[in-house]
Amino acid sequence: MRTAYSVETVRAAERELMARLPEGALMQRAAAGLAAACADLIGRVYGSRVVLLVGSGDNGGDALYAGARLARRGAAVAAVLLAPERVHPGGLAALLRAGGRIAGSGTGAGAAASAGVGAVEEAILRADLVVDGIVGIGGTGGLRPDAARLAACVGESGAAVVAVDLPSGVDADTGEVRGAAVRADLTVTFGTHKPGLLIDPAREYAGSVRLVDIGLGDVLPAEAELEALQHVDVARLLPVPGAESDKYRRGVVGIAAGSARYPGAAVLAVSGALRGGAGAVRYVGPAGDAVVSRFPETLVSDQGPAKAGRVQAWVVGPGAGDDASTVAEVLEADVPVLVDADGLRLADRDAVRARTAPTLMTPHAGEAAALLGVAREEVEGARLASARELASRYGATVLLKGSTTLVADAAGGVVRVNATGTPWLATAGSGDVLSGLAGSLLASGLSALDAGSAAAYLHGLAGRFAADGAPAGAHDVAEAIPGAWRDVRD
Ligand SMILES: NC(=O)C1=CN([C@@H]2O[C@H](COP(=O)(O)OP(=O)(O)OC[C@H]3O[C@@H](n4cnc5c(N)ncnc54)[C@H](O)[C@@H]3O)[C@@H](O)[C@H]2O)[C@@H](O)CC1
Ligand SMILES: [K+]
Predict the structure, then answer these.
(1) Nearest CA among 298, 346, 339 for reference residue 322
(2) CA 135 / ligand 2 centre spacing (Å)
(3) H helical segments located in 127-256
(4) Would you say domain 231-489 falls under CATH 3.40.1190.20?
(5) Do 2-223 and 231-489 share a fold?
(6) Does the pLDDT value for residue 409 go beyond 50?
(7) Which residues, listed in sequence order, are joined to residue 166 by a DSSP beta bridge?
């Protein structure tokens, strides 16, 4: 499991750890890890041109101490000081002792806003490596104008860019990026991941992320704010039939989907459900013929959901058109229900809130925006807050689809993030496959949080296998699910 902790939690843990250690020990651990990561990235340290962007806090201190280490190994290191009067004194002294210098001025008053700005920009443009120590977990609001100018200049440089702890300008707790931010090739983060490093849009700014152990693990609380499942975690969740299993014990998933206009949505939801571990898939709706001709193992009922027979979890909504009564009927069932696509629009909020069995809603950003009454960009820019808000409004678990899919429970607690997805998954019908797959996992007894996050994981992996660098259709993704399942369990 990859976990991420909020700034507040990190601060508390750091205080506890610092009280037990000699002064400055944590920063030295951070700087050593940072310098090593920089060296790995650029390959040859000796003779390389390194520019440090140094803010007024400890993030700048980390950059300065790491810069000193690189200078001792023969790099030409220049520090751009955003606030020379408040720079980390020990870090700056260490850099100067190691032969580093202050960029833009020979006097030490070389802030980017000063007359030395041309020289600063030139240094950044000519650098082999830029180390972004403008601001870390102490950042508030968007980058200030001086810092924003530096971030823009870094964007024009061909240098490798390493962000210290976080790319400056991104929100550590939410992954939001309001205004300018540094785009890094690599982010070297300390002690633990921060939620923003795992959630878009900030995740994209971070590049690849390397975690440096500074001993924080022992003092962090057991429950994180955000977690990302890995193969072994998903393998533990996936249902495996035992010797005594029959189709009912393995779970029957009901699919109430499709319409005369969109029969394909029903077929695709069933295709996902058949690969999700349930013992049987029951279909109700107007696309029964299309479903059976493609998947003869489906139990098709021409009755409504309430009379369809035994079902341990329902999926309702893909391709449902305007069939609000089926959605309402499914929401009355006393078993877990997954609501997707048209079903999200048709589901009555009070009916969802009144349910006692789990409800899993699976909107993409556009659908979530419509339910929240905001613009799509607002959801895309604030994915964590949007998922949490929707979960709390509906009293449901919400799986917000996207490049980094989030799954949030209504009661709060840990949020799951999934990063196995690929842009190739942005293809018609791929969401229908996911809803069937997640519904199948619900029917086999997983909680809404586990079913949603395990399904997102498998679906993302299947998308990668199906696409493999070329376009793939949603049915290809469904067919790749068994391979993803095997990959996870190996
Ligand atoms: N506390 C610890 O134990 C450790 C902290 N470390 C480093 O310390 C960092 C946190 O240090 P600080 O608490 O000093 O905070 P930061 O260095 O992250 O930022 C605070 C400084 O940035 C300025 N600032 C805030 N928002 C800004 C904005 N939007 N634009 C421009 N400047 C802005 C503030 O004026 C303040 O001086 C971590 O991210 C990490 O890099 C590491 O050395 C590891 C150990
Ligand atoms: K930074």
Answers:
(1) 346
(2) 5
(3) 145-156, 202-206, 231-237, 247-250
(4) yes
(5) no
(6) yes
(7) none
Rounded to the nearest whole angstrom, what is the distance from the C-alpha of residue 168 to the centroid of ligand 2? 4
- What secondary structure letter does DSSP report for 298? S
For ligand 2, an ion, list residues with CB under 5 A: 132, 136, 163-164, 168
**Is 139 one of the annotated binding-site residues?**
yes
Number of Cα atoms under 13 Å in the Cβ half of residue 472: 22
Q: Residue of the nearest CA to atom 21 in ligand 1?
A: 57
235-279 per-position pLDDT tens digit = 999 998 888 888 888 899 999 999 999 999 999 999 999 999 999
- From CA 193, how far away is CA 213, in angstroms rounded? 10
User: Crossing angle, helix 263-274 and helix 430-443, to 10 degrees?
Assistant: 50
- Is residue 182 within 8 Å of 205, Cβ to Cβ? yes
Q: Is 487 annotated for ligand binding?
A: no
Q: Which ligand is nearest to the CA of 147?
A: 1
Which atom of ligand 1 lies nearest, measured to the CA of 140? 26
Domain coordinates in residue numbering, the chain = 2-223, 231-489
Asked casually if ipTM beats, i.e. exceeds, 0.90, the reply is yes
At the top level of CATH, the class of 2-223 is alpha beta
Radius of gyration from C-alpha coordinates of the chain: 26
**Nearest ligand to residue 187 Cα:** 2
Q: What is the dihedral of CA 457, 459, 461, 465, to 10 degrees?
A: 170
Could you identify the residue written with the tokens 């790099």? 75
Q: Is 432 annotated as a binding residue?
A: yes
Tell me which residue has its CA closest to atom 27 in ligand 1: 139
- Let me know: does 401 contact 434? Beta carbons within 8 Å: yes
